[in-house]
Amino acid sequence: MKHHSRWALLFVGILTLLAVGINLSAPVPFDFSWKNPFTQKSVPIHYTYPGIPVVEKIRDLSFRLGLDLQGGSSITFTANMKDIPQSQRDDALNSAKAVIEKRVNYFGVSEPVVQTEKVNNDYRILVEIPGVSDVNQAVSLVGKTAKLTFWEGSGNNIKLTASESAYLATQSAMLDYQAGRPIGVTQSVGPGPKKTNLSGSDLKQAAVTFDTNTGKPQVQLTFTPAGAKKFADITSNNVGKIVAIALDQQVIEAPTVQQPIVGGSAVITGSFTTQQANDLAIQLNAGALPVSLSVLQQQAIGATLGQSSLQASLIAGILGFIVIIIFMIILYGRLGVIASVALVIYSLIVLSLFRLIPVTLTLAGIAGFILSVGIAVDANILIFERMKEELRRGRTLTTSIDLGFSRAWPSIRDSNVSSLITSAVLFYFGTGVIRGFAVTLALGIAVSMFSAIFVTKTFLQIFYRK
Question: Final residue of a domain: which of 301, 332, 367?
């Protein structure tokens, strides 16, 4: 048991050092690459996770602040309702709002502001994104329709003369535009291109991957079961032929089908940067906009509360943290010191997670973190009170430690699980600031359970057992 406790203490120490390193880190980029000893070529190493942007270099790990503390970009879009019936325009506007919220807040932690408004006959959507310096990039991510379609040849064996082929190559873009087809589809698959029944609505997930040969980013498409069957039929009927993939009325890839693809997945390659591939994956995952948008106004906005409010919040949090430590030491003596050390480690781990995810901190998010500190202290109080009860019954210190943790655990588990359920409800039904509060609270609760049960117990086993 003593040997086990020392390994646990070593793990806690390493975890603490990592958290300190992350919290003190500066935004210094490092290339992840290795040199192939056979070809002497530098090969980039990429890390990909489902739903998380691809990281080629270590990014800036400084805290991200919300609109109320840092400011950001404000974009006003006008929705084109010309082809939408009057009775469906409000629903189309709300649907577009939902898609935009998914795009700019795909990971639930950036806390944007997305609002709709109607001015006379104009339908508008106001989008405010915190911490975005490149307004044009934000416009591209938010405003693109992201409509994915697949095209095949007409099936007619039309043989063209050299002059006809040359004319088709030079005039295909105009022919496609006049016919309402994606630009470049005629040149890709030949005269009379036919739109397939496979579209973005059949898409299950889009994720960024990297070509194992070139290291270039690409977008991996995974279709639904119905979409997989459609894709298998399309590729089976077009072996040796070209199937064009179009995004927003523009052909982005036109591969030749080598064999039927029955796995229900495809890859979009091209001259993508990692950021462009990631933006495309986000747009496809969020869905296509039901209406086209045009930018009415775009501008940078300042912090609504400012640096003084941030400093006041931090001072209040630090003072509250100090008061909690003093209270624990006065009430529990050496046990209180151990709990305070565990609380410091807890805070370092949570703050490092805020940087890594990253979580955009607003005043509401800071409040969620401070609330989780109280929950972490509450768990220690339950454990210590159970230990004191066991000591009063004549138990040994070693036995009291074990029984204190084992008997306090059900109460700690149930209270924290109920709080996590509340956080999940707030995250699912809330938007913007509410979701940010739920994320910080849930992270704090999860780490507090680890801190109270593992960190505190490890310290007690090391320093109180002979």
Answer: 301
Structure token digits, residue 8: 């646990």
Helix-, strand-, coil-residue percentages of the chain, each rounded to 5: 55, 20, 25
Tokens 């229900």 sit on residue: 264
Helix (H) or strand (E) holding 325: helix 307-332
Give residues with Cβ within 8 angstroms of 170, minimum separation 6.
Answer: none
Amino acid letter, 56: E
Token pair belonging to 409: 């655990």
The Cβ-side half-sphere exposure at 466, using a 13 Å CA radius, reads 2
* pLDDT, tens only, 332-388: 998 899 999 999 999 999 999 988 888 878 888 888 888 888 888 889 999 999 998
CATH of the domain at 446: 1.20.1640.10
Spatial CA neighbour of 185 closest among 125, 241, 253, 134: 253
Query: Helix, strand, or coil here: 26?
Result: coil
What pLDDT, in 10s, does the model give residues 32-42? 444 444 444 44
Structure tokens at 464: 């109180």
DSSP tally for the chain: helices H, then strands E: 13, 17
pLDDT digits (tens, 9 = 90+) for 176-185: 777 778 888 8
Helix (H) or strand (E) holding 297: strand 293-301
Q: Tell me which residue range forms the domain holding 125.
A: 72-144+297-301
- Let me know: does 71 contact 300? Beta carbons within 8 Å: yes
Q: Give alpha helix (H) positions in 333-396.
A: 334-356, 363-392
